Structures are given as C-alpha cells and as structure tokens.
Amino acid sequence: MFEQLKKEKPWARLRMTRKQYEAKRPWAKSGLSREQWEAGLDYFPDEAIDAIYREVEADILVEAIFGKVE
Fold first, then answer.
1. Domain extent listing, the chain
2. Are 7 and 1 in contact (CB under 8 A)?
3. Rounded Cα distance, 50 and 21, in Å
4. pLDDT in tens, 1-40
C-alpha cells in the first residue's frame, strides 16, 4: 500500500495538472481504459518522457523561429 502512495501520479509524469490530464483524456484517444493507459505509462522511464518533452519543445522553438517547414 505504501508503494502506491510513493508512486508518482501519471499526470505529474506527463507534466500537467490532474485537471488538465482528466480534460485531455489520453487513454480515451488511445482506445485503452484509464487503468491500461496508466499501467502502460509505467513502462516508460522518466528519462524517456523527458527526452520526448525536450524534442517537442525543440520543434516548437524551431517552428517559432523559422516558421512551419514542410
């Protein structure tokens, strides 16, 4: 039981508030139940999630500087 309390919440791992997480409903968009989505999220280490965020932030910056390149 204590391990469940120590476990980081899925919305915190995705860098959003609980309210944002529940509004976006990423599990529904993936076709999974919320429990399946959150269990699948556990397979990704924090470093992988951080790398994805850095790449998206870089894409946003490049687009802001150079415009949308196709």
1. 2-66
2. no
3. 17
4. 556 666 889 999 999 999 999 999 999 999 999 999 999 9
